[in-house]
Amino acid sequence: MRSSTLRALARDKPLPGRGTAPGGDAVVDPVAILRGFTGGVRQQLAPGEQCEMCTVPIGPQHAHIADVPDHRLLCTCRPCYLLFSTEAASRGHYRAVPENYRFNRDFSMSSAQWESLGIPVNLAFLFHQTDQDKNVAFYPSPGGPTESLLDLASWDEVVAADPLLGKLLPDVEAVLLRRLDDRFECYLVPIDSCYELVGIVRQYWEGFAGGEEVWGRIDAFFAEILERCRG
After folding, report:
1. Which tens digits make up the pLDDT trace of 170-192?
2. What CA–CA distances, in Å, run from 163 to 44, 108, 152, 183, 185?
């Protein structure tokens, strides 16, 4: 730890990010404190090249933390990721996105249940959103992630019948579905993988059907996901 950080800890006045709420309770912003420890932003870097928690430089392969109330993913360095790997670190405000990949071989879903979701493409990801206390469904589109606003009662039935689906962590783990004719592939993945797929569709989709390039990239994406499930 740097000497300047030790001096900050020894001061009588609060650290950056620390205030007082009505009633005298301390209010702590862990992000502001982390940036105080690292000296704030030292240089102007492109998004994804610096930790969004403490601002230190990071490489293209890095971890993510979910800002749960704001529905955002933050690019982070490894120490910050590990710091928020327990929910108690920020009372659930920030959650480290896990790195587990699983293929659900026993997944079962009927075509009627799928159609009831109102997903116009053969790709979807679903997860439990804490602030709404319900399951939500999204699909990738050229305009970004699009939420299905239909009643998800049929999906709740699928979750209730599959023990693996009910064990996913809210906000940071998702069910990634791919429909192939009359069958479904079901992957249990970190939520950032779903937004990686969204990025592929958004960048490479052309015309009405998407085009050969985007579907080739989607095939490669799922091949990599399956490989991670085997790892």
Report:
1. 999 999 999 998 899 999 999 99
2. 46, 12, 18, 20, 17
